[in-house]
Write a structure and sequence with these properties.
The protein is built from 9 helices and 5 strands. It is an alpha+beta fold. Helix 1 crosses helix 2, helix 1 runs parallel beside helix 7 and helix 4 crosses helix 6. The radius of gyration is 30 Å and the shape is elongated.
């Protein structure tokens, strides 16, 4: 009879406590779920906002009768300008979102958790969640309507509610039945939010370009998208003598061997070949006297 003892079986590898495994899965899942939620909202907003901002830059230069390509703003330059604009908007949005999250946390604490329970209850009711998303999507069209016409607040509320109920309510309610549909709702809401913000920026860019025509000064928003608020005195390359009575011209840009200039006094945009033109006394964002407006010579010519 053998004297060897059989040792009791040991589980290999040793099993971790269920509580530790649950905690690890909960933490990892929570972080990944948070990143997924942030990405599902931020990405469509950013993509839509970038696409609409491209249209806004075209409309901005159209005020001066040119397009971005004619002033040397090609796709690569425009990508860099719009990327910097999105970064600035992100820097403004992050503190705002932080303040909103802090206020939400404070309200939830003051109400003893009732605010969070109310929010979760609203999310679990498909009709309420779909109605909120539909009304928000209807409100995003406000920027589009502002470009094509002037609407007061009451009319805009009616349009937002009517458009949201008629166009988005039932589809969003049907999409709430499955996780894929709920994710699609986030993408649609995020995309329309970016489009709505983009059209508001387009309106601001066009108004800023008009202000440049009238006052000769660019706003901070135009500077953020890379508008060239640069002024110079044009001289002849042959004898280096000032042209146009030595008046200041705004240099919109250069492309294909030509300068694109804006005459603030005559309210005209014109081009000059680079080989016959010298630029002197270049200034960025020059100081203007109070009450300065463009068009003095244009008014005198019309008066004569």
């Amino acid at each position: 009879m053998s004297s060897h003892r059989i040792s009791p079986e040991r589980p290999y590898p040793p099993e971790a406590p269920e509580s530790a495994v649950a905690t690890e899965q909960e933490d990892g899942g929570g972080v990944m779920a948070l990143l997924e939620r942030i990405g599902s909202v931020v990405v469509p907003i950013t993509v839509a906002l970038y696409a609409v901002l491209y249209i806004g830059v075209e409309q901005m230069y159209a005020v001066f009768g040119v397009n971005p390509q004619q002033v040397g703003v090609d796709q690569s330059v425009l990508l860099g300008r719009l990327t910097s604009t999105l970064v600035l908007l992100l820097l403004v949005a992050l503190p705002l979102l932080g303040v909103i999250a802090g206020l939400g946390w404070l309200i939830d604490r003051l109400t003893g958790g009732a605010a969070n329970r109310l929010l979760q209850g609203i999310r679990k009711r498909p009709w309420i969640a779909a109605t909120a998303a539909a009304l928000w999507c209807g409100a995003t069209y406000w920027g589009i309507f502002r470009i094509f016409g002037t609407l007061d607040l009451f009319v805009m509320v009616v349009v937002a509610v009517g458009l949201g109920v008629l166009a988005f309510l039932i589809p969003f309610r049907l999409m709430r039945r499955k996780p894929v549909g709920r994710a699609g709702t986030k993408v649609i809401v995020g995309g329309l939010t970016g489009v709505g913000l983009g059209f508001l920026l387009i309106l601001s860019l066009v108004e800023g370009a008009v202000d440049v025509q009238e006052t000769g000064q660019a706003s901070e928003l135009l500077n953020a998208v890379g508008f060239q608020d640069q002024w110079t005195v044009v001289k002849s390359a042959e004898d280096d003598k000032p042209l146009y009575d030595g008046r200041w011209m705004m240099l919109l840009g250069e492309s294909d061997g030509t300068y694109v200039l804006y005459d603030c006094d005559k309210l005209e945009t014109f081009r000059r070949p680079m080989e016959t033109t010298n630029l002197s006394r270049i200034q960025l964002d020059p100081e203007r006297r109070e009450g300065f407006t463009c068009g003095d010579l244009a008014q005198q010519d019309s008066g004569n």
